[in-house]
Design goal:
6-stranded parallel beta sheet; 9% strand; magnesium; alpha/beta; Histone, subunit A; 2 domains; 307 residues
Length: 307
């Protein structure tokens, strides 16, 4: 079984720096698990690692879509599996860094979501995305809530992709999304490193990260996306962009939009941490409060690779 190393955790806890260190030590090649970093031109709001910062370590699934294109979990799984095969064949260590918990779980485990024929589901997915465009995300979520309230209560109204995915699974299989995949078979021998620290410290670092993004030009980047039509696209649903669109329309103040970015980022971090603790086995470390666990991480990864 091929080995895959993953690094997850909320924003601003040191994932990028650790991934570079481990990649250099273990011949790693990095696959971005972030569904927003695939978009060309969305660099600041996605905290994208730029070529000059990559220390000659190969990075994949960055800048592979135009901002008006969709990118699904099906795309991520298919492209990541191909990359894992290629990297492993070269003797390298595939590393998944960052991203959503569902994307990582769908990759590491044999999650069929109604079958491996993801492409056959496009028609169903498009139907529900079109429904949301016409009737709104709340109406879309209400549809799921009627069919599968257990799934709906765990998916935010604004997470259109997850809502559509749950509706798609039910429509294709007749089985509720909340009842799917109670026992999953792993595709890979995976070692998942989770980075976290004290919640107050995480929130403080998130606020600082947003302020840093703004100083780097986030407003200008988001405005370009908005003026290009991003409000209607998947790329415009990302945190750091969607909150600024009402400001560009003069519906809210800039200060309110900025605070909303920070709030949404904090809420997202909390949801992700809760999700990971219940969905995937994770080895947790706090390298913010004490950098010495980095040595323990290296030792643990070495032992795992030697098995």
């Amino acid at each position: 079984m091929k080995k895959v190393l993953a690094i997850i955790g909320p924003t601003a806890v040191g994932k990028t720096a650790l991934s570079l260190e481990l990649a250099a030590k273990f011949q790693g090649e990095i696959i971005s698990g972030d569904s927003m970093q695939v978009y060309r031109g969305l660099d600041i709001g996605t905290a994208k690692i730029m070529p000059a910062e990559r220390q000659h370590i190969p990075h994949y699934l960055i800048d592979i879509r135009n901002i008006d294109e969709r990118y699904s979990v099906a795309d991520f799984v298919a492209e990541s599996r191909r990359l894992i095969d290629d990297i492993s064949a070269r003797g390298g260590l595939p590393m998944i860094v960052g991203g959503t918990g569902f994307y990582l779980k769908a990759l590491l485990y044999d999650m069929n979501l109604g079958g491996d024929h993801f492409e056959q589901s496009k028609q169903v997915r498009n139907k529900w995305h079109d429904y949301a465009t016409v009737h709104g995300q709340q109406a879309l979520w209400d549809q799921l809530n009627e069919i599968d309230p257990d799934a709906a209560c765990k998916i935010p109204v604004t997470n259109e992709r997850r809502v559509v995915r749950a509706l798609e699974v039910y429509e294709r299989t007749g089985t509720l999304f909340s009842k799917q995949q109670t026992t999953l078979q792993p595709r890979y021998d995976a070692y998942v490193i989770g980075l976290n620290t004290d919640r107050a410290k995480v929130y403080e670092r998130i606020n600082q990260r947003v302020d840093q993004m703004l100083s780097m030009g986030l407003l200008e980047e988001a405005r370009k996306l908005y003026e290009a039509g991003g409000e209607q696209w998947q790329s415009g649903k990302g945190i750091g962009y969607r909150e600024l669109f009402p400001y560009f329309k003069d519906d809210i103040s800039k200060a309110s939009a900025i605070e909303k970015i920070k709030q949404d980022t904090r809420h997202y971090a909390k949801r992700q941490l809760t999700w990971f603790r219940h969905q995937i086995p994770v080895h947790w470390y706090d390298i913010i409060a004490d950098p010495t666990p980095k040595e323990a991480i290296g030792t643990a990864v070495s032992a795992w690779l030697e098995k």
